[in-house]
Amino acid sequence: MALQLKDSKEQIYRTTSQKQIILDYLKSVKSHPSAEKVYSVVKKKLPRISKATVYRNLKDFKKRGEAQTIISQGKSHFDADTSSHAHFICLDCNKIFDVFENACTNCSVIKNKKPKVGKIENYKINFYGHCKKCK
Ligand SMILES: [Zn+2]
Ligand SMILES: [Zn+2]
Range of 27's domain? Predict the structure, then answer.
């Protein structure tokens, strides 16, 4: 019985620190990594972590509002910045860049958050184009 308790405590500790390492990585980058990219980076710190664990954690972050996803080329990319901000997706290199609200001050819908259909709580806007490097 005592052994079991110890095991479950270790299990909780391990799960928490894995989760924290994945979230810390996501918070430290602005590159909006895909699940595969997150897995390849996290694996360097946690060699024993499985792909399934990383994917499950990413799903949980999204469910709990700790991260948001942006779809590019049919793939989910993760962003730990959950504030309302638009994204620019390069059609050539598939990189995702943040476009913040103050860059869209001329957009009246974003500015007063009240289009005719109702009140906006948050938004997801993707701009598609060619980034400075690819242009
Ligand atoms: Zn590009
Ligand atoms: Zn973003």
Answer: 2-68
What is the three-state SS of 16-61?
HHHHHHHHHHHHHCCCCCEHHHHHHHHHHHCCCCCHHHHHHHHHHH
Question: Closest-lying ligand to the alpha carbon of 130?
Answer: 1
pLDDT for residue 83: 86
Whether 103 is in a domain gets the answer yes
Distance 91 CA to ligand 1 centre (A): 7
105 alpha carbon – ligand 1 mean position (Å):
24
pLDDT, one tens digit per residue, over 5-51 is 555 666 666 667 899 999 999 999 999 999 999 999 999 999 999 99
Ligand nearest to the CA of 93: 1
Number of structural domains found in the chain: 2
